[in-house]
Amino acid sequence: MDFAEPEDWKRIRHEAEKFTAQYVTDAMIRDELESGDGVSRTLMKAMGERGWIAPTWPVEEGGAGLDPFQAVVVADTIRQAGGPTIGPGTTMLSANAVRALGSTELKAEILPGVASGDTLICLGYTEPEGGSDIFACRTKATRDGDEWVINGQKMFTTFAHLADYCFLLTRSDPDSYGPSGITMFLVPMDTAGISIQAVRTMGYERTNIVFYNDVRVGDAHRVGDVHEGLRVMRVALEAEQNIAPASRTAQLFRTACSWAEQTLGPEGLRMIDDDVVRERLARLAIDAEVAQLLGLRAAFLEQIGGKPGPHAALFGPESYVAWSSEMVDMVGPHAMVGWNDPETAEGGIFEWHYRSAVASTIYGGSSEVLRSLIAEQRLGLPRSRPRVDQPST
Amino acid sequence: VNLGLNEEQHATREIFANLFAKEVPADRVRRAEPLGHDVDLWRLVVSTGVLGVAVAESSGGGGGGLLELALIAEEAGRRLAPVPIAEPAATTRLLAAIEADELLIHALDGSTIVSLAPRQTPLAMQLLPDGAVADIVLAVESGRVVAVTRPPNIRLIPNMGSLPLARWNDVDAVNGEVLASGPVALRHFHRALDEVRVLRAAALVGLAHEAIEIGARYAKERRAFGVPIGTYQGVAHPLADAVVAADGAQLLVWKACWALDAEDPQGPALASMALLFAGRTALQAAQHSLHLHGGYGFMAEYDIQLYYRRAKAWLTVFTDPGREIHVLADRRFGPGRLSRTEMLDLSS
Question: Which residue of A has its CA nearest to B68?
Answer without folding.
Answer: A1
